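Methods: example folding runs. The two proteins below were folded one after another, and each record is reproduced exactly as written to the output file, sequence line first and structure-token line second.
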Amino acid sequence: MITISPPSTTSIFGSSSTTTSSTASTATSTLYSTSSIAAAATGGSYVGTSPPPVQSGCLWEVSGSGSFTHSQTFDFTNMIDFPTADLSISNYGVEAGTAPHSQMYNSDQVSVGDGSLQLKVPGGQATSPIYGAEVQTTIRDILYGSVRTMVQISEVPGLFYYKDDNQESDIEILTADLASGAHYTNQATVPGEKSTTATHQLPSNATMVMHEYRLDWLPGKTVYYLDGVQQQVLTSNVPDSPGSWLWNNWR
């Protein structure tokens, strides 16, 4: 089994064919976002390499990204149970399309323990569906945000905002091809058009220790950071509809 420790803490600040088993662990993930409903704070301290937000009255100020009205942190370092009030475990299938196999997300692949949220892909899977894991915010109408997640990467972990296939921003890492780096993408907002994407090199120890992966979704642009250092700004195909934040591990 390959054990991965992605985020152990998640914070949200917002306004309105292999024989191995892959585990993505989330110890800390921080989200600063906008939402038309209040995000219930779970407590927990901010952990990460980006500067923490500064509370100013009813707002949270994120340097370089503006003000947000809500904040939330998921700190799994001392959790025993999954925080069902604020996160939900996905339970659905994805058709194969042009891929070799279909996929299925369910609760059997999600657990909390050893100071992290563990998203698992069981080894030895050779027939459809291939099982993986995904969690998402229970808030479904987040509009803009700054999301930081501490991750030790595993096979194809993904961290992203999602409304639908044409309203989606991703950080995706394909560990079968680590040399290709981290893929930062805004999916096409018009069906059939091309998505906007850029790739950046990963740290040499990305599979051994946690690093902070951050996505700031703002009006007219998405900004991507690694360990607090800005890597990419995308200004086309930027989503503009409210939705959820998702973290997943799949093959």
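Second run, written to the same file directly after the first:
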Amino acid sequence: IWTLLIGACIGVEKFTLKKLIGVFACFAGVVLTSGADISGDTDQNRGIYTTLMKKRIGDEARVNMALFFGIVGLFNIITLLPGFVVFHYTGVEPFKLPPTGRIWAIILINSTASLVADFCWAYSMLLTSPLVVTVGLSLTIPLSMVGQIILNSQSSSGVYWVGAGVVFLSFLFVNHESRQREPSS
């Protein structure tokens, strides 16, 4: 919801009742599939970040993604490293290197997967709209639960499958609505 509201306020998204219905349907589907936390703080921050990025960059041809993420990483190191050092020396959160090669491998594989996912997210946001990408991210919740069902031989209730279907259909609905509202070139 935050991406739609912020995007409409700064002119990146066109606010329509259909988009609002699609966003609420997606939200309801996520709640049905996972019983998700509905506080919204993280969603609000991601909505601001996504929408402002689209507003400032606009077209994917205007940005070098490797340089962009490099600068974001450098900014994070500069701003977060002092807190890391303070937490370690005050004993709030002591730092220790991973004890085994297997843990190092897990860290490196997950870091690489996260980097690739962030690149894909940024490009998809520039190619479509912040709202479509944000609603598309909601698909990860039912998909990850399907993975758990397959890997762990679990079963799910009908409520889960209804929620997963609502999330999927709301993504298609919002994507279709966004495509109809795009100005033709």
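Comment on the second run: The CA atoms of residues 17 and 64 lie 35 Å apart.
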